Description:
This protein is an alpha/beta fold. It has 2 domains: 8-82; 92-313, Rossmann fold. The chain is built from 8 helices and 12 strands. It has helices at residues 79-82, 105-119, 154-163, 169-180, 197-206, 256-259, 261-269, 290-305; strands at 8-19, 22-29, 32-37, 48-52, 55-57, 69-72, 92-97, 123-128, 183-189, 233-239, 274-275, 279-281. Helix 2 crosses helix 8. The longest helix is centred in the C-terminal third of the chain and has 16 residues, at 290-305.
Amino acid sequence: MGRDKQGVVEHIPKAAQLCAHCWLTEVKSRGRLCHIPLGQEGFKSQQQIEIETSIIHGLDSKVEHNRFHIYGDKGHDAVIANRLESRTVAKKVLIVYAHPEPTSLTRQLVDVSIEALAAQGHEVIQSDLYGMRWKAVFDAEDFPSRTNPERLSYIMESGHAYATGQQTADVAAEQAKLLAVDAVILQFPLWWYGLPAILKGWIDRVYAFGFAYGYKNGTNEYRFGDGILKGKRALVNVIAGGPAADYGPRGINGPIDQLLFPLTHGALFYPGMDVLPTHAVYGAGHVSTAEEMDAIKAAWRVRLAGLFIDKPIPFRSQNGGDFPDRHTMADHVAPGQTGLVAHVANLVDA
């Protein structure tokens, strides 16, 4: 790995003790702010850290498990005070992952997730879909007790099974996990521009009528920002084989945010979750050195450190005034914009 491309980061001689075992300090370089939990001993005021974009190297041994987070704050120091917060509050996190190969990059990053979150004091719950031999096909077998044995209506049978407690045990267990946690992380490879079928099947089967849609009153009143999972956070970690250029604004594959819009805006924001910006790993098929792997893992640790403090994607909520009839965006909202981009509020009207 080369030298720091953005210059040496100098420690701001200031550390705030948050509790008996938690210190937090700040470092800054070229408008980037880094908060680092330092442990009980704190951090020497003259010590330096090098930052290369989102990769940290040369870390002091006191920084356990490389737990840190970088903020792009445009150089405004005023944000320092209100970002000093404890990382010791224990949360519950569900990791749902889909890859059959234990040595795959996806599974290695799952291991990083488990390690890093546990080191932060969080409780980690796992759904290893291949390991569970998850049933991906959503069919009549999901409804042991049918209201209409003559014709399969998914909405009717799903709602009936959920309301009467007659869902299959595997579906009910996953719903219970979702309700119990504070955040959900999805980790998977990008296969043919979308989710692995087993993960799509997890959503299809777990997102029952009355649970993820038709919530409370069987209508569309509680969706897109409101729903049974409101207040929880979601983070997507997708592994793509192609280079980043293929997924750029004019890339041949299309932007990753648009490819995954049905997942982030649909499956995650629809039932109310606050969805964080997607963390994509590109060029996975060409990772060949330990240094490259270490850099990928370090960048993922950065995102995990911000799981409960990073700002979510500002998707426009259904009940926030932008959709007065719950269907179509008001004329004064995002004038001239259509399609997927219109659903994300910009800095002007956020």
